[in-house]
């Protein structure tokens, strides 16, 4: 029973949290589709004082796509539109939309960038110049072939797109993809064949629509959809201002305008993100804007603009950047750019979630099964916290022993609660019983519960991670509700093993009887990995509770012999 009170507190906190998030998703202010200017000026630091303009266009653009080319590596399949040289689709080949099964052994891969109007998300780049020719993300490039693929033994793949102007300016936009990597190198090489100096700026931007509003059939279906609770929007980082989020409903009220050296801009969702990363020593301008989409869902743009580039007549210059299109894997992200690992959103309990994720990752290297790793994590936590839980059981045993004397105090003082409380405190002091000793495990349990919840919800490694048998995805609910039922049985066993504690009034006793049913309903919609954690943890506590009660009963029997 002493284990059920902490779980009741956790449940109430968690249900309140889910209710608040559901209300925020449904009733909080959402972005307003307000028409914006057709072009947004960007402070580029042009020496001549002229300010180049970066045109904003939606999915329709100014004309239909000139040509689509496909680029395939071992982990990515990209579709590049020769109009602008923009990447309009990116498929993550190692991350299927649905789990692989015997009936569906080759499901479609996740599409991060997408040119469908309802899910539009594109990585665009270009050059702008106040007084010279320059290809922006609407200019038409030429390409030598329409299909590129990384071959066996090849570690890198180059894709060149070429734009020329009658004035003598030539630009080669080169994408370089690497084996096993989600990082794409972009070089925009400017050959100045004109008779005068070319001045301009390079820019890179991500353009996206907000996610479609999901349709739910009931409230329980709504709160069980874990993807709705993760952040979906723009993000950016600078060494001075650190990691920042920019929700789509803040684009109009709090537009981004910042100078940064060694930063990046991106857009992220639950497990994946797209990020433009300028050179670390380049002082760029970060900005955001909203693009009207002819009455349809507006497009949100976050961009980075380089300092002025000057290319003398007959000379050549190159502007470089990197584009990351992939999963939020902490070990990889922290090696790509400073602060990029912060896009893994563990919420306010990051201090607990990150160590839990690290321990799970180390265990998975041994077990190669995240479910088994969760079980081992339970055993480790119980080993570390054994002393505290042991003190909790000791306190419960002593309180149970004092129950007849406490009942006598209630009869003696009747409705005089002040005198009764004072008499109980004197009794606790005399018998050296600390009724608050059971609260310490609660202080440990709650952070672990929430931390593990965030790990299971936002760690891409656990997405579609199978356990055994019927559980094919530890980040999703148990499809047959086996684990919630098992946990309910464990809670009933705890109730049966531990009689009501001293001082518990009839109302509390009734609440405790209904707790197993309440948890059965709540855990139906929790990630199965989290329910697995609490099934194993409940079994460990049940065994510990049985052992402590047996030991105390044996000691009491010897004392009375």
UniProtKB/TrEMBL annotation:
- Which stretches are tagged as biased composition: Polar residues? 33-51
Q: Which UniProt keywords apply?
A: Cell membrane, Chaperone, Membrane, Protein transport, Transmembrane, Transmembrane helix, Transport
* Annotated segments matching region Disordered: 32-55
Q: One MF term from GO for this chain? A: membrane insertase activity
Transmembrane spans: 370-390, 433-456, 476-493, 514-536
**Pfam families per the UniProt record, alphabetical:** 60KD_IMP, YidC_periplas
Subcellular location per the Swiss-Prot or TrEMBL entry: Cell inner membrane; Cell membrane
Name a biological process GO annotation.
protein insertion into membrane
- NCBIfam families in the cross-refs: PRK01318.1-3, yidC_nterm, yidC_oxa1_cterm
What function does this protein fulfil? Answer: Required for the insertion and/or proper folding and/or complex formation of integral membrane proteins into the membrane. Involved in integration of membrane proteins that insert both dependently and independently of the Sec translocase complex, as well as at least some lipoproteins. Aids folding of multispanning membrane proteins.
HAMAP family, A to Z: YidC_type1
**What is this protein's record name?**
Membrane protein insertase YidC
In which organism is this protein found? Dyella dinghuensis
